[in-house]
Amino acid sequence: MKQLVQKLGIVLGLVSFGAGHSQGALSSSCIRSLSEAERLAWHSLLSDGSDVESPLSLIRAEGLEDSELIIVIEQARAQGRFSMRMLREGEVADRGERPDQIFIFQYRIRTLSDHVFTVVVPHGCDDAVYNYGFN
Fold first, then answer.
1. What's the pLDDT tens digit per position in 6-31?
2. Radius of gyration over alpha carbons of the chain, in Å?
3. At residue 50, does pLDDT exceed 50?
4. 20 to 30 Å CA-CA from 7: which of 33, 71, 77, 109?
């Protein structure tokens, strides 16, 4: 996992969050920074295949190994077919989550599928990070 996240440094370096991306008060939660929330989101995306439409589940359905997801993401990025965004206040994720008490990241990996992959990172200490796909 550590090697996958290190390889993704190139992708994370390309991500920028413009003005207006406020997602609640970070000081009162266990998630202390946006970069920590990003790290947790990437970890979930690359390691949690529990949802049938998660990126890992789709990779597995193609007969690929979990570790090949990073290759698919890198290829998509190189072809301009990868994107990442963070939901803003007032927006709603596909399953109704709102970014007032959680971070919500959405990824598109167009070389893998037409899904929007959503990763939810709660601000709270005891709430689990999860991801799912929706198309």
1. 444 434 433 333 333 333 333 334 77
2. 14
3. yes
4. 33
